[in-house]
Amino acid sequence: MLTDLSGNQNTLSFEVFPPKKDGEFEKAFEVLDALGKLNPDYISVTYGAGGSRAGKTVEIASYIQNTLGIDAVAHMTCVGSRREQLLEVYRELTEHHVTHVLALRGDRPKDMSDEQFLARDFEHASDMIAFLKENTGLHLAGACYPEKHFESFSMESDLNNLKKKQDAGAEFFISQLFLDNDFYYAFLEKAAKKGITVPICAGIMPITSAKQIGTSITLSGSSVPKAMADLLATYGDDPEEMRKAGVDYAIRQIRDLRENGVRHIHLYSMNRPKTTAQIAEGIL
Ligand code: FAD
Description:
Elements: E1 11-16, H1 25-36, E2 43-45, H2 54-67, E3 72-77, H3 83-95, E4 100-104, H4 114-118, H5 125-135, E5 139-144, H6 155-168, E6 170-177, H7 181-193, E7 200-204, H8 211-220, H9 226-235, H10 239-259, E8 264-268, H11 273-282
Parallel strand pairs: 1-2, 1-8, 2-3, 3-4, 4-5, 5-6, 6-7, 7-8
Helix pairs in contact: 1-11, 5-6, 9-10, 10-11
């Protein structure tokens, strides 16, 4: 449960994304049913770039909260949304008993004009968090970056901005994915020195195909350590062997995190229950 984030117990949570097409909801619910059987502490649901498909996020979050009985965290972004639209999403979430939101700035979609990009009421996630804190009863979370956000010129300034999210009302953070735990440990130390006191969930993405390096990893700005580059060189051409090697890498990464006192793990499930289940079982 989400309340366990403030306790001393380990937690395991997942991220899912809504289906890209309306006809794919049945399949999405099957995926959620399978993920739900793994008893995660919460499941977060992404928000389409630019806020175009907010209703899908609400629908999936509602299924998690009300049908599966698992705490849902709905993502929301400032980019592409005006104040009134965000309040409308809030009202819909409330109708569906979803009370937790991961508040993000969002990135500029490729097809968004300058005008659309600038037409937002909140410049940064911290501004949206402050607004939602004041105007809604939502519990709010924010994103953090163990290797700093790609637009920040230093870790120092990124951490100052992270502190603004906490001061605005973020109750916990979820990290960007990272493949080298040393970055995470260094980040936790610096964040603590900056006065970050709320729980932080470590974002882990299993790298199960070479293609992900060109997509998720490049977009995240995370470094690829030699151990991962070696796996890709060895298994990159064999999809099933690469999947197994990626699962094994994620399990080793999480075990090391747990041994070093990291309690909260957030798995980027990529809507893949088999891979997620193997990792969840592998870290027991
Ligand atoms: P911000 O906190 O606004 O930070 C963006 C940049 O501005 C940083 O460099 C920061 O240092 C700087 N900054 C922050 N506050 C201030 C301030 N007050 N003054 C000056 N500078 C400031 N994107 C989606 O579109 N949909 C999703 O569902 C989604 N889910 C995500 C989940 C996680 C866990 C993560 C880590 C990212 C997710 N993203 C998602 C991507 C996210 O939108 C991008 O990483 C985006 O570039 C930054 O979002 P943010 O909320 O961290 O922004």
